[in-house]
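Chapter review. Work through the record for Outer membrane porin GjpA before attempting the end-of-chapter questions.
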Amino acid sequence: MHHAIKPYVTAGVAIVGAGLVAATPAVTPLPQVHTWPEMSLTADSSPLGDPSTPWTDVFNTASDNLNQLTRGFLVAPFVGSQQAMANLNGFMQQIQDDPSSINVVMGEIQTQLKAALSSMTLMNADQDTVNSVIHQTMDGSLLGGHSLIFGQVPGFLPPDQAESLTPIINFLGSPMSAVMMGAIGPSIAPWVAMMNSISDGDSFNEIMASWLNGFLNGATLDLDSLLPAINGAGLLPETMTVTHMDIAFGGLLSTGGHVSANPIDVVDADGNTVTTVDAVGGSMFNSIGLGLSGIPILNNVTLQSDAIGPLGAWIGLSQVVGAQLGWGTGWDGKTTLPEVPVIPPGVDLGFPTLSEFDDGGSSAATDFDFSGLLDSLGF
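Structure tokens for Outer membrane porin GjpA:
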């Protein structure tokens, strides 16, 4: 299986690089604007085309995306910051209750801080963190998908370059790469959408609506014109060919969300499911669409591109950080739904209180290990 996937991985890395130079990301092809023939306002004889349906489609798609973004955000607004504050509050109270635990607490704070910071870019993350985060940033399974390629890439890098290239590959699968894609998407997607509409021979009204559709909902840039050059470059075995390639640019409201992690299962205090919230987020790696044929064992493999916009990228980043700090359970997405409480973690914040002490007994002041604090901070 390892050798069968190797050409597939090599091709994937090469094509991702070519795609990034050509432009940037991709998503599940967003709904294209088409005319419904039974609309009463359709004017077949007019060059302007249907005056209402294209704009209605744009609005409805944007409304669906906004609904998903809103639900994903309101599960726990700025959950990364909320969970960090909740954890810090707990640590402060723990030190107050037991001053001798300060070294243990400082070590835990450092561990959580490292996990949160490394999860943003994955460039300096350990393998456990990488494995956890990519479930929230890309799709995949045992037989295909972006995470399959992503997991195989490090094993096929040149030995003398693996150490320097692995952080770059990791970044392509990180939530911060989605933020970068989301930043450029709304300025590129309108032009891509308009070019697609013109190429499809749409009416003038549909072409005008496509621009707004790209800005709000994103657009997919088809790169099939590059296939002859890619297939003729000698990157693949003779039996293997690239059958499709595209890059999806997210619009302002593009949600991403085509990831291997399951939707969030929101539960109450008794563990009863209140509602289920679809995933939000993605990555630069997940934005590449690719089709390959002639792969040993697997035969045909399709990677579906997934566009991510700025709002969805920031929500996804916050949820990744929150998960690394302890928010939710089951984020591996393999067996159960991730579970989060109905009440966001920041709601229960409370500043530590001082306990009473008498002159003859031990106190927080007398038990405080100042030298231990300095040692834990590295002084």
